[in-house]
Specification:
The chain is mainly α and 102 residues long. The chain is built from 2 helices and no strands.
Length: 102
């Protein structure tokens, strides 16, 4: 393959410019290929990191969800308790204002 390229360059009398172009093309191809290999290796490292972090966060998220459920239940119970107390207080206040309270 390379022989036919060189023969073509010599036959057309393109001389040094043809060979410089071929050399530059080869260097550019190697450079691009190396960059692509580095990018692929970096992407694989990123994917491994993401998988590791996801595995570590999973159990923590489950604990957080359970804690949030408990807090919601406590808040609901507190609202129910305070609502009953508030109702009792308002009823007493109304009775006092109407003159029927103790």
């Amino acid at each position: 393959m390379w022989d036919s390229i060189f023969e073509l360059g010599v036959a057309k009398e393109l001389s040094i410019f043809f060979f410089l172009f071929v050399l530059l093309s080869c260097i550019f191809y190697k450079f691009v290929r190396d960059i692509m290999a580095q990018n692929e290796a970096r992407e694989l490292r990123y994917l491994d990191t993401i998988e590791n972090l996801t595995g570590e966060i999973g159990p923590s998220l489950k604990i957080i969800k359970e804690d949030i459920k408990k807090l919601k239940e406590e808040i609901r119970e507190e609202i129910r308790t305070n609502h009953k107390g508030l109702k009792w207080y308002l009823d007493r206040l109304i009775q006092k204002n109407n003159g029927g309270g103790s």
